[in-house]
Amino acid sequence: MKRTLIAMLAVLAASLALCWASMRLLDDAVDAAQALRSQAILAEEEARSGEAKTLLLRLVQHWTEHAPLLEMVASHDVLSEVWTAVCEAQVCLECGDRDDFLRLMSNLDGVLERIRDAEALRWSNLY
User: Which one is predicted more confidently, 75 or 91?
Assistant: First the structure.
């Protein structure tokens, strides 16, 4: 009986540690993406399109680096929405379409927040 209880507690601790680690990974990736997105918007609003393009490329690089791990944690469809928004935003920057770029960056903010909310460590997400 004692061994069973100890084993159960060990499994519970390992499960909670894994949930916490995946939440930290997701939060760090989303926070960095949000920061790069905000910097790109600011650069475009200040008429520094070259810097906005560079920041958007850094966002793509960041998301590419974290994509394999994020695929294990978040929904593939939602991650595809991030890729779509970033690719369309790059096209808008290349064409000089500032309004669509800002709209897409706003949509990207919503998608990133949806990822964070859907994968947050809450009781409802533990089952």
Answer: 91
Q: What CATH number has the domain bearing residue 111?
A: 1.20.120.660
pTM given for the model: 0.79
In the block, residue with structure tokens 């949509």 = 107
Q: Which domain holds residue 113?
A: 22-125
82 Cβ contact partners less than 8 Å away, ≥ 6 residues apart: 33, 63, 108, 111, 112, 115
Rounded CA-CA distance 47/120 in Å is: 36
